[in-house]
Amino acid sequence: MSQEIEIGLGKKARVAYSLDDVSIIPSRRTRDPQDVSTSWQIDAYEFDVPVIGAPMDSVTSPATAIAMGKMGALGVLDLEGLWTRYEDPTPLLDEIALLPAETATKRIQEIYAEPIKAELITKRLHEIREAGVTVAGALSPQLTQEFYATVVDAGVDLFVIRGTVVSAEHVSTTHEALNLKQFIYDLDVPVIVGGVANYTAALHMMRTGAAGVLVGFGGGAVSATRMTLGVQAPMATAIADVAEARRDYMDESGGRYVQVIADGGMGDSGSFVKALAMGADAVMLGAPLARATEAPGKGMHWGSEARHQTLPRGFRTNVGTVAPLEQILFGPSHMADGTTNFIGALRRTMASTGYVDVKNFQRCNVVVTPHDTL
User: Fold this and answer.
1) Which residue in 85, 109, 198, 293 is a FRET match for 57, CA 20 to 30 A apart?
2) In a 3-state reduction of DSSP, which class is residue 42?
3) Cβ(58)–Cβ(297) under 8 Å?
4) Strand (E) positions, 102-258?
5) Residues 6+ apart with CB under 8 A from 187
């Protein structure tokens, strides 16, 4: 049963937990790390590791999307980013990385004011397709109707609709809102959509026919949604709530399984592992992959929230450069700070709890350990 507290006479609130507030408990049965499977599947596409590169210009370029794909992960290209606005965005990526903090947001807004070009969407997706890896691209709900035909015609395998908050019942008095259920029904491509942060929103999203649902608002390291909008999703509770919606939707739909993908706030391998333990099938990573030597941001990290023309809800931050992408995912680690060997950490924790695959690992025992008391 949910714990509810009284804030004041006119308002009650539910207690919610972040990933820092929970810990995984080993079981009586253990296994060898090499005996566990970290694979996951969405629709017809199977991956060796439950890692999705976030659609952020500081993380995923066509080149890094290809590299992730060849390593058994999935890279998602931001189809509203610099790669679809400029023929060669490399000088602008270099400029953003060197901007003074006090002027970075304003200059980012200016750079991203360049219109998106449909022919560049096609070119970038073809580049990834020619490398022989799964092709995934992301649009915001606001621009999905304008560019989805271009994206599908370019041969995308997985279509991601990603926003700060996405609902199945958006209401507008100024324009025709995207009808997600009809859109997904008409589209012959699996759709991942989000973010959502509670049971009800997730259940409604699953009923649209989405293949996967993003939990959270993304951009944990670079998002200022709590400061600007007052909006935040404690991720441990949010993931567990959406996992419960997945179970109920399976019963309701006669067995249709929707992938739950945690998105944002997992800057270290411990948080990554705990997100899966709370019920996620895969995790969308931003900051950890922005630390790769191959990352387009060169140690700087920013998301789509930072480029909003009237109300930026994010910022550019220095996450540093720690190791090549392969070492961040598969190790070896040379520091005990959770910035490298994410899959090695997952394997070891799965082995310590006795589970052989990610799906069963979601059943592991956890305890609440508020981090501010440790």
Assistant:
1) 198
2) strand
3) yes
4) 136-139, 158-162, 191-196, 212-215
5) 148, 152, 159
When mean pLDDT is compared across 19-28, 62-71, 225-234, 354-363, the lowest value belongs to 225-234
Handedness of CA 45, 51, 55, 60 (dihedral sign): negative
Confidence class for position 165, pLDDT limits 50, 70, 90: low
Residue pair 233/217 in contact by the 8 Å Cβ criterion: yes
Which two structure tokens, joined as six digits, stand for 73? 């992960």
Distance of CA 277 to the CA centre of its chain: 16
Rounded to an integer, the average pLDDT of 32-39 is 96
pLDDT at site 170 = 45
CB atoms within 10 A of CB 70: 13
CA distance to 45, 293, 302, per residue, from 157 (Å): 9, 27, 26
Residue 320's nearest CA partner among 342, 304, 297, 286 is 297
DSSP β-bridge partners for residue 74: 52
DSSP symbols for 52-110: EE-S-TTT--HHHHHHHHHTT-EEEEETTSGGGT-S--HHHHHHHHHS-HHHHHHHHHH
Report the pLDDT value the prediction gives residue 11, as an integer from 0 to 100: 92
Residues ≥6 apart with Cβ < 8 Å to 183:
144, 145, 148, 191
Specify the 3-state DSSP secondary structure of 354: coil
* Nearby residues of 249 by Cβ (< 8 Å), 6 or more positions away: 203, 206, 207, 256, 258
- On the CB side of 130, CA atoms within 13 Å amount to 8
Q: What is the pLDDT of residues 302-334, one digit of tens each?
A: 988 777 777 777 788 999 999 999 999 999 999
Give the count of beta carbons closer than 10 Å to the beta carbon of residue 55. 27
- Nearest in space to 263 (alpha carbons), one of 19, 16, 2, 17: 19
Q: Are 174 and 217 in contact (CB under 8 A)?
A: no
